[in-house]
Structure formats: C-alpha cells, structure tokens
Amino acid sequence: MTIQGDPTRLWISRRRLLGYSAGTALAAAIGRVPGAAAAENLGAVTQEQWTPEFIESIAGTIEVDTAAECAKVVPLDHKGRLTYWYVGPNQASTPLQHKLEAEFWAAFATTYPNITVEKQSIDYNEIPNKLRTAALGKAAPMVARLMLLWGCEFAAKGFLQELKPEDVGYPSSEFWPRALRSAMWKGKTYGIPTNNETMAFIWNADLFRQAGLDPEKPPATWDDVVAYSKQIKDKTGKQGYGLVARRNAGNTPYRFMPQMWAYGGGALDEAEPDPTYQRILIDNDGSRAALQSVYDMYVRDRSVPVSALTNAQTENQDPFIAGRLGMMISHPTEYATMLDRAARATGDDKKIADAVVQNMRYGLIPRGPVRRAVVFGGWNVHMFNPDVVDGDFDADAARAFIAFSTGPEWSTKLNWEQSNPGNLRGFRTKWMKQRLEQIKFLDVTTSMLPSGIPFPVIPESTEIMNIIVPDMMQNALTEKMTVAQAAEDAAKKIKDIFSPL
C-alpha cells in the first residue's frame, strides 16, 4: 500500500495486499454491469437516470409471490430450527416499525410453519461485541443481520460462510453492485444486502429567503454550502450549516466523507471506480480542500454551531426546529421527526416549529469539483460457519429465512420508514409505491443511491472513520494543527494501523 504523493512509502504486507487485490478485482467485475437498459437492470442505472420521476414510474409495476419464490429454494414443508441475531425495533422506534416487525415474523411462520426460530434482538452498540464473544466460544447464531461495515471483520476471522444472492434464489444483478462489494472479503462474498439507504441535503426555505437566497434552490456545490452558510449567518444571525464533528460517532463520517469524496479525496481510494484499499488519500489535495472548507465555516466565518465538535445529528434538531439553523444532512425520517417535534411544541414555539416544517426542503447532496457523493449505508445478512455455531447447523432453515427476508417483499416492508429494499425488485412493487405516497421526500433521498460510496471494506474501517477522521477534523478546527498538518497526521495514523502486518 502507498500513501499518495510518495511512491516510496510502501507499508502493506504481501499477504494483505493479495487479499485486498483479489476482493476488489471481483468487486470491480460486479460493478461493470453490461449496458443493459435501466428499466431492465436497476443496478446499472446512473445518477442521471435514477431520478425521483424514474423511481415513481417503476413503483407498482410488478406483482410478487414470496412463498412461491422461497419454495424454489427450500420446500415450504421443511422442518428445522434457526437461531438469528439482529438489531430490531426498540423503544425509540415508531409504532409502524413494531407493527411491520410483528407482521414479518407472522408471515414467515405461515410460509414455513415447521421452522422454529430462536431470535434475539440486540442493541446496535452491543451486537458486534456479543457476536465476537459468541463466535470465539462456539456459541454464535446460524444467521445474523449486521450493519454493512461489520461483516468483513467476521469474514476475515473465518467466522462466516460464503453466501451470495444465487445461494437463495436471486441473481446478483438484483442488488446494488456497491452493496455486494460491502459483503466481500478476499474475492469471496459472505453476505446478502437486506437494505440500503443514502441521505439528502435539507434546508429551511424561510431562512434562505431571509438571507437573500433562492428559497427553492439548494446549494449546488460544497463551495456554495460554505458561501450560503456565511450569508445566512451574516444576514440573519442564525447558524448556516449543521456541521457534525464528534469523535467516535458515526454521524461525523457519514456527513464529512461525502464532502471529502466530492473534492477528490478519501480515507483510502474507496471512492474510485475500482478501489484497491491500498492507497491513503486522506492527505491528498482533495481531502485537504474538504477539510479547509469546514475550517472556513467553523473558524473563519463562524457560520456553524460552536458546539459542532461535540455535536451529532441529534444536536442539530433543536436549532433546526427552532428556526436557528439553515442547512443539514439527514435521512427522510428527519421530516417525520420534525413533524413530531412540532406536534409536541406549545405556544410561540409551536408557531415557529410549524413554520419550519412548512419550509423544510430536501435536495441532492451538493457536488464537488470531482463528483457528487454520499455514504452508501445499509445492512447485510450473514451465515456463520457451523464450527462456531451453538448446536447443529440447519442450512436449509437458514437459506429459507434469508430468501424470505431478502426478497422484494420483505426487504421493502421491513425498511418502510428508515431505508430502502436491498433487493432492487422491491422498487417495482406496490409496497414501494405506497411508501412513496406516504413518506415525504423519500423520492429525493432514494435518488441519491447511485451516488452512494461504501466506507472501505476492511476490518479497520470503523477505526478510520469513527476515530481518525473526526480527530483530523478536530485538530484542524481547534487550530491545534494546520489543515495540512491535520491531514498528514491522519495519514500517519492510518499507516500505523497496518504497519505491524
């Protein structure tokens, strides 16, 4: 592996190099889908084709028989046992999420009445450690659903079985190429996408109007974001952009990495069409330009919240609903959150909150000099190796469950409010049509999917994104280091992660 700009700084081991090269070669082959018509192969669509209008035009155009599709994989009368760990709805989830969860389990029991499921819903922050401990103690579940960053660690440790869509009756072309890449390790596929999502750019049209900006036109570029943020602050006294820079919080890289990628940077080369994960780009010109832009907003212009260093997205919600914040990045569920906050407000606060909701707008993430980009998020389902599983491994029960849950019906229904179907046929179903009718701005956030970029598919990705990237931002924003020094320090830290190997 090399650090860009200095070809003599070679530091990755041959073993790791070969592993990454094999994996990314296959991922690249998957990504280069032949020039099929977008209407036939949704995974091949471009950002220009995958518009809100296109998404709405294909919704409700197919019928799905889930039981019939599953029967082709595992007979519906199969008798067996399945153990399954996942992150399910909790007290913070909406009533609809709980309702759909219950309907899913009832439907699976109806489809496969002779498969007994022993399931555990585990807290998001606890499930990785619990699975590590369980696998080491040969007490892992047969199947687990994991956030897409986590799977490669378990595959690298030999805990997972190979698993690809074809193993449960679906062609790989029914899934986003970059989603499939997130489930790969050393050239082999170890999981199937259940759902994928991207975020969008949100702004307060009334604050734009007060600042002399076009209220219906979001910033087209990241340079515009810097300029708009300053103009909002100068003209209204309110904060412009909801910068997030908290350490060890996923919200930070999910909002800063699109900016870095847009300028031509990256942690490694994850934004390139054929990433190798063998080059450090966090100190290249593009990464430094992105870091300079947040420095300009925080230090030079003071147009973002001073609390950005400790803020996650949750801390942006109060100022936004109070009309004191002009722009932020978030999910379509942010609109529902603001509706709920407005409904609970009273007196003058309610008047302000209702006006903010009325003026809430969604648009595409801004472009940079190199590209438009957004973090490609989601979850994958995995099968653990029989030798680390508690009890006998029932492969047919596992395959039946995975086929049922990753098909177009339930990959759409289970992700109704918070994500999108991993199976691309889900976008053509009547359920997707209903979602588009019910969830405001879903078409906009969904239209960002072809621009989605996964974080590097390596076990070290979480440390890079949740620790090193925020540290770099904080070093620059506190002026502990210059922008150049902070980027160079981050590159050294990434190098140090791999140096012993």
UniProtKB/TrEMBL annotation:
GO terms for cellular component: ATP-binding cassette (ABC) transporter complex, substrate-binding subunit-containing. GO terms for biological process: maltodextrin transmembrane transport; maltose transport. Gene3D superfamilies: Periplasmic binding protein-like II (3.40.190.10). The keyword Signal applies. Keywords: Signal, Transport. The keyword Oxidoreductase does not apply. GO terms for molecular function: maltose binding. Pfam families: SBP_bac_1 (PF01547). Belongs to the bacterial solute-binding protein 1 family. PANTHER family: MALTOSE-BINDING PERIPLASMIC PROTEIN, MALTOSE_MALTODEXTRIN-BINDING PERIPLASMIC PROTEIN. This is ABC transporter substrate-binding protein.
